[in-house]
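ok here's Diacylglycerol kinase catalytic region:
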Amino acid sequence: MYIVIVNSHSGKRRYNFILKQLSTFLHKPFLTYIASEYQEETMWIEIDNKLLDLKGQVKGFIIIGGDGTLHYTVQKLYHHNLPFGVIPSGSGNDFGRALKIPKNTKKAILRINQQNINKYDLLEINGKKVLSIIGIGVDAETAIHCQTSRIKRLLNMAFLGRLTYLAVFLKTVFRYRSKDITINNEEGCSFRFKRVWLMALGNTSYYGGGIPICPSANPQDGKIHVVIVHNLNIAQLLLALPTVFFKKHLSLPYVKTLEGRSFTISTENIPIQGDGEELGVAPATINILHKAIEFY
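and the structure:
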């Protein structure tokens, strides 16, 4: 048996279609929880109680949604130590993209049926688990603004939701002021970068709807892959932007990379996002949790 969590913001017609596909193709029975039918924490409390009642009958969780739904579900259900499956249904599916989970609903279900469970790394920051990338600077402000942006709603209506991040980034970047940032690794080495526009700490390669900002990141290698864009003006930043989509940006003189198991950002009052969700401001410490979560 599975417990299925549905992001109702993906649209009633869409998630009803997926639920019908699950009923047809999934090899095990499932219980469905639709987020919009509950208030605040009541859904998670009910799921916890159901797991106690079923006493080991639940074999995993299936999330119908995008990165935001997956991020929030992991915070609430990670402690049950059960594997997660994903049926992509959101404007951002960057973790699913990294794991090569099919966008096609039937193929995603068949992947779960295969019961091929693998362990993956997680990032941890201030007690929060992050699956894909932690962003600091202008990309964090962009991700935060995406949550309430009218642009996101309009692009989703036009089935162009994956362009939301880029559109909001181009709007945000002209208001953002680059900052000097100090970062320390687990060995005590300190690195100071001037005029930092963004810093991405990756467990996987993608964020923002398919932007490969950390192209060498591997969610099973036990490492945080850090990309810092610094010491350039806004014109240079905008000219460099297209190189990211072709994974050519790491060779640019104003892009620096680091690798490690733990990093501390000591500079204060810089916004932080993880999986597209707001995570507060620096200072903060980011750790890698090696092979800490299971996915079908």
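+1. The longest strand covers residues 190-202.
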